[in-house]
């Protein structure tokens, strides 16, 4: 299986990935006590997010902001941005002051949200199949396959941890490439070559890709 013909965003994500993220994030609308596994929660919520994406009244350009708002409300609360940011900075996290950590988390969150918002118009009838899942205590992984309307497949796995009674995403693995690990490689290169302050500057300028081999020039 490959993704050669699946469109990719300017931020490096395969376009279909955002659809899968949206579907996954709606896990939060279900009652965890009534579902045995994260996968069951996801499957019970698929129709809700697809209803937003397919709603003809939200497709016109004039309704784009309303569509964005509706999807934001259900998607972003399901990301553990603090954990993602901490992991993406790696060992350098411990060297930073609380103020620096706070600013880094904010800028990292902006990167993820911008990547998503810039690709909200990418849905084109892609299908999502759940191919596996596993749980180990407070950690879980849900594996999916995204099939484009041309028949091309892309694998997306979600890594979650249970926090305050709900499951939250702390990494997304696209075609075996971890978003967190990819960001860490880019961030480490900037810090080694320049400084942490320069990293923050480049993050403000949105000069990093989620699943790209190097930062933008």
Molecular structure report:
The protein has 217 residues and is of the alpha+beta class. It has a single domain (15-204), classed as Tgt2/MlaC (Nuclear Transport Factor 2, Chain: A, Roll), CATH 3.10.450.710. Helix content is 43%, strand content 19%. It is built from seven helices and five strands. It has helices spanning 15-25, 38-54, 64-75, 81-89, 98-117, 179-193, 196-204, and strands spanning 127-136, 139-147, 153-163, 166-174, 177-178. The chain has a five-stranded antiparallel β-sheet. Strand 3 and strand 4 (166-174) form a beta hairpin. Helix 1 crosses helix 2, helix 4 (81-89) packs across helix 5 (98-117) and helix 4 crosses helix 6. The model is unreliable at 1-12, 26-36 and 212-217 (pLDDT under 50).
What labels describe this entry?
single chain; 217 residues; alpha+beta; Nuclear Transport Factor 2, Chain: A; five-stranded antiparallel beta sheet; 7 helices; globular; disordered N terminus; disordered C terminus
Mean pLDDT score: 79
N-to-C SSE string, H for helix and E for strand: HHHHHEEEEEHH
User: Strand order of the main beta sheet, please?
Assistant: 1-2-3-4-5
Q: Give me the number of helical elements.
A: 7
Distance from N terminus to C terminus (CA atoms, Å) equals 31 Å
What is the number of E strands? 5
What is the fold named in CATH at topology level?
Answer: Nuclear Transport Factor 2, Chain: A
Radius of gyration equals: 17 Å
> Unreliable runs, pLDDT <50, ≥5 residues?
1-12, 26-36, 212-217
> What is the level 1 CATH name?
Alpha Beta
The CATH superfamily appears as Tgt2/MlaC
Q: What structural class results from the helix and strand content?
A: alpha+beta
- Largest β-sheet summary: 5 strands, antiparallel
Tally the structural domains: 1
**Which word captures the global form?**
globular
Which percent range describes the beta-strand content? 15-25%
Roughly what percent helix?
Answer: 40-55%
């Amino acid at each position: 299986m490959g993704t050669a013909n699946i469109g990719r965003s300017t931020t490096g994500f395969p376009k279909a990935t955002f659809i899968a993220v949206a579907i996954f994030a709606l896990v939060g609308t279900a009652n965890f006590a009534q579902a045995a596994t994260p996968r069951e929660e996801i499957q019970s919520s698929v129709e809700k997010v697809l209803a937003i994406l397919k709603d003809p009244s939200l497709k016109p350009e004039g309704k784009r902001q309303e569509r964005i708002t509706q999807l934001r409300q259900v998607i972003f609360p399901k990301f553990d941005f603090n954990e993602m940011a901490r992991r993406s900075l790696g060992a350098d996290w411990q060297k930073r002051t609380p103020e620096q950590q706070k600013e880094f988390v904010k800028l990292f969150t902006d990167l993820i949200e911008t990547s998503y918002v810039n690709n909200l118009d990418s849905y084109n009838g892609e299908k999502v199949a759940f191919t596996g899942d596993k749980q180990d205590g407070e950690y879980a992984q849900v594996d999916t396959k995204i099939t484009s309307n041309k028949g091309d497949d892309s694998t997306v796995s979600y890594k979650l941890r249970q926090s305050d009674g709900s499951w939250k995403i702390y990494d997304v693995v696209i075609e075996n490439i971890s978003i967190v690990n990819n960001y860490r490689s880019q961030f480490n290169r900037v810090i080694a070559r320049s400084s942490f302050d320069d990293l923050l500057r480049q993050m403000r300028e949105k000069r990093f890709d989620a699943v790209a081999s190097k930062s933008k020039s």
